[in-house]
Amino acid sequence: MTDTWYVTFEVPRRGTLVRRRSPRSPRTFATEAEAREFARSKFDEGLVVTAGTIIPHLPRQAIPSRGIAAWLESAEEGPLENPEARDG
Questions:
Q1: How open is the CA angle 81-52-18, to the nearest 5 degrees?
Q2: I want to staple 5 with a disulfide (CB 3.0 to 4.6 A). Which of 14, 18, 35, 56 is the partner?
Q3: So what's the pLDDT on residue 8?
Q4: Confidence at 20, pLDDT banded by 50, 70, 90
Q5: What SS3 class is residue 51?
Q6: pLDDT tens digit string along 66-86?
Q7: What are the CA-CA distances from residue 16 to residues 7, 11, 34, 56 (Å)?
Q8: Quick check: helix, strand or coil at residue 72?
Q9: Which helix (H) or strand (E) holds 33?
């Protein structure tokens, strides 16, 4: 199975990571559930987190940092729906 989800999080300025080119670090996951679990751990640490599907995976989903809390909460309600995919 190939990775279809990514989660990025801010890299703390202090600690072992010194002089990185990017202040964000990405990780990839095969499932949305794995991505949510990882995102929740980083979010609970107080880091800024974003997530989404890796191109060309469709339907394309991008969860900005301001929407992460709602995305994590929606895990308890079931998978995200694509409103455009509904009939009627």
A1: 155
A2: 35
A3: 94
A4: low
A5: strand
A6: 999 999 998 766 554 443 333
A7: 21, 10, 26, 34
A8: helix
A9: helix 32-44
| Two structure tokens written together for 7 | 């989660």
Which residues face 20 on adjacent strands? none
Q: Which residue has the tokens 């060309």?
A: 56
Residue 44 identity (one-letter amino acid): D
- For the record, the structure tokens of 47 come out as 């880091």
Cα 34 from Cα 71, distance rounded (Å)? 13
Residue 13, token pair as written in the block:
């300025």
C-alpha to C-alpha distance for 66 and 12, rounded to whole angstroms = 19
Locate 43 and state its tokens. Answer: 């979010």
- The C-alpha R_g of the chain, in whole angstroms, comes to 14
